[in-house]
Design a protein that fits this description.
36% of the residues lie in helices and 22% in strands. With 214 residues, the chain is α+β, with helices and mostly antiparallel strands. The chain starts with a helix and ends in a 5-residue tail after the last helix. The structure holds copper (II) ion. The site of copper (II) ion has 5 residues, from loops.
Length: 214
């Protein structure tokens, strides 16, 4: 009788231990996955001036692209970054001198006559990957306005920044998410594997202890 009770107690103790281990594993896995997912993703656009599709009636002090986290400006003068203003005829405006500040990059606004325009932007993500895209806006100045001089190709601030976003593609931003998912799965798998090993060890220790009552 006493022996059976002892055995049950041992089993329920092992059960509780396994439950605790699995619970801990689940908590650790959840926190690691939760932290890893955003850190591995690319920067993405959260706001801009001008806005996508906006009709701009007067020039702001800067054209700005703001992303979700700090940008990687290793050169200190926007190498790898581009902020191009292109008109409907395919001409470009501005000197291409990009200023990177935290999660934002900006450029002195320069634009031609009223009409349809495209912003073409390129940034270097916090993880070093380059992300580029484009969006349209309309320029409809409310007062008198002197158009800036147009150029056939985008300016690159004398080679310091810009001039590299000639072929933006939406695919650039899609691929890395798969890579991130893969890494997350590897991390998650490793943690679960560790949990299984710990559980087996606990079971073996529990078995050795159970036949002891004398
Ligand atoms: Cu990336």
């Amino acid at each position: 009788m006493a022996q059976r009770t002892g055995s049950r107690t041992t089993r329920s103790a092992i059960g509780a231990s396994i439950g605790a281990v699995l619970g801990t594993v689940a908590l650790v896995a959840a926190s690691v996955l939760g932290l890893a997912a955003p850190a591995l993703a690319h920067n993405y656009l959260i706001s801009s001036t001008p806005k996508s599709g906006e009709t701009l009636t007067k020039l702001p002090s800067r054209f700005i692209i703001t992303t979700n986290e700090g940008l990687l400006d290793l050169s200190g003068h926007g190498a790898g970054f581009a902020f191009e203003i292109k008109d409907a005829a395919g001409k470009f405006y501005g000197d291409g001198c990009v200023t990177v500040d935290g999660p934002s990059m900006s450029i002195a606004p320069a634009i031609g006559a009223a009409g349809k325009y495209t912003v073409i932007w390129q940034i270097v993500s916090a993880d070093g990957h380059v992300v580029s895209n484009q969006y349209p806006f309309t320029w409809s100045p409310s007062g008198s306005f002197t158009p800036a001089k147009a150029t056939d190709t985008p300016q690159n601030c004398g080679g310091k920044s810009g001039g590299t976003a000639a072929a933006p593609s939406k695919g650039t931003t899609a691929t890395p998410q798969n890579a991130s998912l893969g890494l997350v799965l590897v991390i998650g798998g490793s943690i679960l594997g560790l949990g299984v090993v710990l559980t087996v060890v606990l079971l073996l220790v529990g078995r050795r202890k159970s036949p002891t009552p004398s």
